[in-house]
Amino acid sequence: WLSEPDATQHNSGLGTAKALKALKGSDDNLARVLTELTARGVRDRTDVFVISDHGFSTCSRSVDIAVFLKKAGFNAVREFLQPPANGDILVIGNGGTELLYVIGHDSKLTRKIVELLQAQDFAGAIFTREPMAGAFTLNQVRINTPDAPDIALSFRWTTDKNTEEIAGLVASDGGNGPGRGVHTSLSPFDIHNTLIAAGPDLRKGMVDQLPSGNIDLAPTVLHILGLAPPEPMDGRVLTEALTSETSKSPNPVTHTLNATRDLGVTIWRQYLRVTEYSGTAYLEEANGHSEPKSK
């Protein structure tokens, strides 16, 4: 596991001299691994997977949601210093996504927060535990667990470039200032990441055009080792990339979900794009914006 270029891109930004040096350092470390495999005489029978846990965007602006909600009259905090009461809101910042826990799960209060967020230019896509106008549910992004937030906000992103000509800007929680690297939004620049693999069990020179994700890595490795998972797993075996397999699944199907809400003077619109293939759903991107109503 390598901590770079993550740390440097967070601190220095994407495409900077320091970020490029960090990438070179990771390349050099990979070369050390490959050299050692060769020295031990096992490189020609070793499959090597190089993956990243996420992509990256550049922070376009910082937004402190706790402060924003506090100014709007909500009792929002980032830490409970005493036992919380119903109606208190715990704000958990995660870079490109904000998680809001409404103590007591009050639906009316949650709707007020959602409506307020939908009127803001930093909001990208909003997800709620219960169905609400202009939002998607947590179920639709596969995060509806017992400990899930009442509201998840993915900040708004654009395809604009930073000062180093790297595309992908996104608003972010206050911890990352403008120009610095950030991730965890539903921007395709954050979601689409790296998977490079080589070895005796993998097709040489192939560029996989089918949807895939990190959830596919464990099923694929187990399949190569001839091991059956002890219980059903998320993800799929990347059969199209294996020399011993032939992919027989139908073509991927991509569909776009839309949600709107009339806010009076403006209309909120958001979308979520999902691709389904071989029984696995892959989130492609999500975003939203408010626009003036047509006269």
Please describe what this structure looks like:
The structure is a single chain. The protein is an alpha+beta fold and 295 residues long. 21% of the residues lie in helices and 31% in strands. The protein has helices spanning 6-12, 17-39, 65-71, 107-118, 188-191, 217-224; strands at residues 48-51, 57-63, 76-77, 89-93, 97-102, 123-128, 136-137, 151-155, 157-161, 167-173, 181-182, 195-198, 253-262, 266-277, 280-292. The strands form four sheets. Strands 3-4-5-8-6-7 form a six-stranded mixed beta sheet, covered by helices on one side. A four-stranded mixed beta sheet has the order 9-10-2-11. The longest helix is centred in the N-terminal third of the chain and has 23 residues, at 17-39.
Give the class from helix and strand content and strand pairing: alpha+beta
Secondary structure: helix percent: 10-25%
Query: Mean of residue pLDDT?
Result: 95
Low-confidence stretches: none
Intertermini distance: 56 Å
Key terms:
295 residues; alpha+beta; 6-stranded mixed β-sheet; 6 helices
Brief digest:
This protein has 295 residues and is an alpha+beta fold. The chain is 21% helix and 31% strand.
List the helices and strands and how they pair.
Elements: H1 6-12, H2 17-39, E1 48-51, E2 57-63, H3 65-71, E3 76-77, E4 89-93, E5 97-102, H4 107-118, E6 123-128, E7 136-137, E8 151-155, E9 157-161, E10 167-173, E11 181-182, H5 188-191, E12 195-198, H6 217-224, E13 253-262, E14 266-277, E15 280-292
Parallel strand pairs: 2-10, 3-4, 6-7
Antiparallel strand pairs: 1-12, 2-11, 4-5, 5-8, 6-8, 9-10, 13-14, 14-15
